[in-house]
Here is the input.
Amino acid sequence: MTKNVTNYVFCLLLLIQSELLSTPRLTVVEGSVEDLLVTEPNPEEPGHHKVTGIRLANGSHPISASSVVLTTGTFLTGSLFMGQTMSPGGRIGDAPSSAGLSQTMKERLGLRIGRLRTGTPPRIVKDSVDLAQAHIHLPDSHPTPFSFLNTHTRCKPEEQLPCYLTYTTPGVERVVQESLHLNCHIQQDTKGPRYCPSIESRVLRFPGRKHQVWLEPEGVTSDLLYPQGLSMTMPPDIQLRLIREIPAMHRAEIHTPGYGVQYDFVCPTQLSPALQVKSTQGLFLAGQINGTTGYEEAAAQGLWAGVNAARWALSMPAVTLSRTESYIGVLIDDLVSRGVTEPYRMFTSRAEFRTSLRPDNADLRLTLKGFEEVGCVSSLRYQEAVRVRDGLHEALAALQSLVLSSPNWKKKLPDIRMCEAKNTLVNGMAVLQYNDVSFEMLASAFPECLSPYMEFSQRLKIEAVYKPHCDLQRKEMERIQKEENMSLPQDIDYISLPVSLSNEVREILDRVRPSTLGAATRLQGITPAAIVHLLHYVRYIGQKERQRHRNQPDQKEERKEELCASSASLPQ
Here is the structure.
């Protein structure tokens, strides 16, 4: 995937805005929300309060509503930091949300509120950057559309803009170290994002290293660059000194300086899986107010909170998505069951069944449910998903029905690297797993059986390649569930454990030292992949090592006896 995502986001925002403004029976009101209207709860539903609408700061009449979705972003009691200056706001040039809204949530609704921080890099004038000194990264030659209904993107490949990769230098680290006393944001105890940290945090945590900086166009028609990886909160004059320590930006000019933001968030364990506040009927929260960071995470929550808020207004039951069928399900379950200690980002490693949660099968996993159960998918999209589902099922059945011995497969496909010595029966799905075999090759060998499914060739290849990994992952999860009560030795050296674990996971395990595998799975920051590696070590490798250590004294004694016997037989 290229780093040229900014153009897509910008175009998508314009399209969404256009769609909203042209939607029948939808009224768009622009204004700051001053407060929530709250009354006594419906005794037939759980909760201590019930939301009945909102009050705007402009003094207009209250807006009644049976359900409300709050997506405050960084604006809930937000503060902007630049050097040693602080001002109220959620984004530069915009005021924060009203204090009344935050006060209502804390005092009237009794919600537990925390505080997080994030930041943004300075925007650089494109013409002031020497892009010849950076590594160009071209966009995809054939960009993949977001929608399964489209065969190509609206933006032609030749109209896309490249991104450029450069790196920090020792001069960047020197400027950071020399200016720490002028940077109050980085000195705060408030938790910042671990996975998209500021350049100050990177330098302090990983001194002596060079760090990537992606120079991304802000848009197709913009003359600004977004230096991904250079989020910073130092004074503007020092920001200019810092970016000019990078060769490609030695004459760069800053259009808008970077800054830090601190904001309130609601501890998400107070929400239901529908993203409704448990104590307040009809109130739903989405985005950074729930402790997440990132556009995609916010969009996913906004979608799901909107779906359930609409269902609440229609007196319909809430709907949920499980961890096994979607990343939205993983994200929401992590939030409401574990909470957050730092801004949450969605990673594939957080999902137990990540090999089956792929972009190519998203329509089969979610579109049918979106139409049949949720009602937020159009009939046109649903009909296309059903057609694709049925076609793929028929194609997979056709592949499974092609059963030949290895020698016979070799005759059909002489160029493939298949062992002919094994006279075992192999079906077409297993043959498609080979790297040098494509669906087109199989279709040419069996035209009557497979040629009707050529439009699914790429998806069938992906399905075949991932099948053994999906089967293995499913078995691993079943084994973890069975071994949940397995004891973890308290003398494990997690820091130097010879298995694939991230530094973050090692630090958490070493600090908490969980007594059982089940306790480890419930720790914030411990991924399913880490649990699989830990289980394998304790169950197999660790047992062998401990057995070897237990046998070492006996082996030493045996060796002593052998040496004594040898010396006794030597001539004196």
Q: What stands out?
A: The chain has four domains: 1-30+122-257, 32-116+262-319+327-349, 359-476, 488-564.
